[in-house]
């Protein structure tokens, strides 16, 4: 998941071409979900650490000129020996036009530091964890769902992902499997997955944006749980317009962003 469009302040321009800040890794595999959506795995530097929900800055070296850096949320689990990412291919994009041609064995650069605060650790209490995503905003939630502590801490895990076309529902089989089976010993949570497709009818999916299904009550009905500031904790990642609209709607219902010394019930991250 690219955390911004192909240009923007989060793209990692500050990652100077300083080899002390990054390691050179190899692409292990590429999975193409659609012609414009892919996921890819790369080797993992043995000392690289991250918390589920965080992102990494990765770079592609050009034959001439500076390294091109972008920020991507990590899909893989913190214990995996590889790093996995989900990306939209932007036509003419300086980074993704090269990524589209990547094959196993190609090299890619990874900064040694992980970043971001989209983590369940920011919440101090609550029994239901809601993860609301659009497009590749799904990526950090996949890493979170692979964290055993989340399954032990919460009673309900509710994941909603909104896309334009049904074929863009990446990882659906894996998510469905998590919902059918308790993935970890000691897990007490149950997962409810709510796909939404906006531009075509799709089996098992809502046919509206998450913002609309929140407003008309369908989201809570599909989840089988009410949104309640006393028990619900929400993480939102995706299109900035969606994130803002959800923040405002949930704010009217009593949900607040966490602040230092004042824990809240909302955590947000913009992505495309």
Please provide a written account of the structure.
The structure is a single chain. With 272 residues, the protein is α/β, with parallel strands linked by helices. Helices cover 19% and strands 29% of the residues. The protein has seven helices and eleven strands. Helix 5 (210-216) packs parallel to helix 7 (240-251). The longest helix is centred in the last third of the chain and has 12 residues, at 240-251.
Residue stretches low in confidence (pLDDT < 50, at least 5 long) are: 4-16
How many DSSP H or I helices? 7
**Morphology:** globular
- Measured between the Cα atoms of the first and last residue, the distance is 7 Å
Output the structural class. Answer: alpha/beta
Beta strand count: 11
Short description:
This protein is an alpha/beta fold. It has helices at residues 96-99, 139-145, 148-153, 172-180, 210-216, 218-223, 240-251; strands at 22-34, 37-43, 55-60, 68-73, 82-88, 107-111, 128-134, 156-163, 190-197, 232-238, 266-270. It is globular.
Which terms would index this structure?
272 residues; alpha/beta; 19% helix
How is the topology of this model organized?
Blueprint: E1 22-34, E2 37-43, E3 55-60, E4 68-73, E5 82-88, H1 96-99, E6 107-111, E7 128-134, H2 139-145, H3 148-153, E8 156-163, H4 172-180, E9 190-197, H5 210-216, H6 218-223, E10 232-238, H7 240-251, E11 266-270
Parallel strand pairs: 7-8, 7-10, 8-9, 10-11
Antiparallel strand pairs: 1-2, 1-6, 2-5, 3-4, 3-6
Helix pairs in contact: 5-7
């Amino acid at each position: 998941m690219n955390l911004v469009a192909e240009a923007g302040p989060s793209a990692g321009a500050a990652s100077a071409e300083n080899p002390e800040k990054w390691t050179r890794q190899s692409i292990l595999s590429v999975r193409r979900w659609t012609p414009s959506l892919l996921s890819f795995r790369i080797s993992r530097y043995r000392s690289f650490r991250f918390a589920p929900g965080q992102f990494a800055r990765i770079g592609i070296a050009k034959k001439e000129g500076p390294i091109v850096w972008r920020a991507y949320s990590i899909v893989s689990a913190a214990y995996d020996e590889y790093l996995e990412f989900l990306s939209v291919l932007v036509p003419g994009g300086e980074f993704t036009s090269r990524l589209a041609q990547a094959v196993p064995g190609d090299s890619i650069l990874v900064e040694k530091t992980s970043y971001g605060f989209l983590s369940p650790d920011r919440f101090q209490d609550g029994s239901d964890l809601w993860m609301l995503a659009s497009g590749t905003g799904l990526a950090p939630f996949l890493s979170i769902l692979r964290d055993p502590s989340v399954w032990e801490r919460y009673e309900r895990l509710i994941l909603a992902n909104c896309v334009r076309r049904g074929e863009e529902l990446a990882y659906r089989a894996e998510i469905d499997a998590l919902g059918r089976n308790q993935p970890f010993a000691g897990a007490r949570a149950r997962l409810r997955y709510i796909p939404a497709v906006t531009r075509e009818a799709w089996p098992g999916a809502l046919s509206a944006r998450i913002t609309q299904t929140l407003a008309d009550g369908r989201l809570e009905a599909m989840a089988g749980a009410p949104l309640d500031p006393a028990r619900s904790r929400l993480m939102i990642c995706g299109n900035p317009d969606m994130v803002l609209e959800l923040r405002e709607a949930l704010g009217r219902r009593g949900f607040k962003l966490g602040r230092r010394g004042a824990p809240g019930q909302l955590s947000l991250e913009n992505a495309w």
